[in-house]
């Protein structure tokens, strides 16, 4: 069974940094697209960043230049480095794993439980 597990969330002041990790088991990790999504209270889940099986990346406009997604296939892990955090980045962050098409259509098949990120002003 495919199971992504997120870690690394927490409380940080505005301007600070956090690094989220997502370890995925039960899959041939290198073949999967991976995405980071977030959902704030009262809002829909939105794509933050994604990385294809080949290493291509894309970002939401709101995080470009501040967040970096990367993957380490040997560890079945994807990371989200978040710098210059803002209060509006406060949300539950979810990791998704999907087949290669997921990178283009943003439809992911397996989800983690989420990790809370809170940015104080």
Topology, please?
Layout: E1 3-7, E2 10-13, E3 18-25, E4 33-39, E5 46-51, E6 57-59, E7 67-72, E8 77-82, E9 91-98, H1 102-105, E10 110-111, E11 115-120
Parallel strand pairs: 2-11
Antiparallel strand pairs: 1-3, 3-8, 4-5, 4-9, 5-6, 7-8, 9-10, 9-11
Description:
The mean pLDDT is 96. The protein has one helix and eleven strands, in the order βββββββββαββ. The protein has one helix at residues 102-105; strands spanning 3-7, 10-13, 18-25, 33-39, 46-51, 57-59, 67-72, 77-82, 91-98, 110-111, 115-120. The strands form two sheets. Strands 2, 4, 5, 6, 9, 10 and 11 form a seven-stranded mixed β-sheet that branches. By secondary structure, the protein is mainly beta. The longest helix is centred in the last third of the chain and has 4 residues, at 102-105.
Low-pLDDT stretches are none
Structural class of the secondary structure composition? mainly beta
Radius of gyration, in Å, reads 13 Å
| Overall average residue pLDDT | 96
DSSP E strands, number: 11
Order of helices and strands: EEEEEEEEEHEE
Termini separation: 40 Å
Kindly state the percentage of residues in helix: under 10%
Instruction: Profile the largest sheet.
Output: 7 strands, mixed
Regarding quaternary structure, what we see is: single chain
What overall form do the CA principal axes indicate? globular
The share of residues in extended strands comes to over 45%
Number of helices: 1
